[in-house]
Design goal:
166 residues, alpha/beta, 5 helices, 36% helix
């Protein structure tokens, strides 16, 4: 008799689902739908979504906010035993923050070949001249993540969403 599969609550797919929930919050707020969570020891220690328009802050990307929150939660700026899950490949700013925070891993959903800094346009996360390199996981629930972004920009072009310009 076949038994139903056991849900692995510590899998990359599970934690990307948490990041997707954050991306939906961004979408509902009229922000570019990118969400991020930071995980340490199998537990989410920080979660956020893009808030550039809400905060009127160009640096308020989901990753930046989640990294800052994780540093406060952990009580240290070094996040070597943490993994960042983000629905879209990080931009150069966010990839730089991941390296500076010494994140152990960065896992993203959909690639950004024109602006991504985890192997798309360039790879800052593993640049040989930097003092830290992050392990990269790519394409986790990538179709879902990409679909959400495409839907957002389609709706914005049609005039259904105002504000966000990333």
């Amino acid at each position: 008799m076949d038994e139903p599969p056991i849900i692995d609550l510590h899998s990359d797919a599970h934690f990307m689902g948490e990041a997707l929930r954050q991306a939906l919050r961004a979408y509902e707020a009229g922000e570019v739908p990118v969400g991020a969570v930071v995980v340490r020891g199998g537990r989410v220690v920080a979660r956020s979504f893009n808030q550039v328009e809400l905060l009127k802050d160009a640096t308020a990307h989901a990753e930046m906010l989640a990294i800052t929150m994780a540093e406060h939660t952990v009580g240290d700026w070094r996040l070597t035993d943490c993994t960042l899950y983000v629905t879209k490949e990080p931009c150069p700013m966010c990839a730089g923050a991941a390296v500076h925070a010494r994140l152990g891993r960065v896992v993203f959903g959909c690639p950004d070949p024109r602006g991504g800094a985890a192997g798309g346009l360039l790879n800052l996360l593993q640049h040989p001249s930097l003092n830290h390199r992050c392990e990269i996981g790519a394409g986790v629930r990538g179709e879902e993540c990409g679909r959400l972004l495409r839907e957002f920009f389609r709706a914005r072009r049609a005039g259904g969403i105002k504000g966000a310009t990333e």
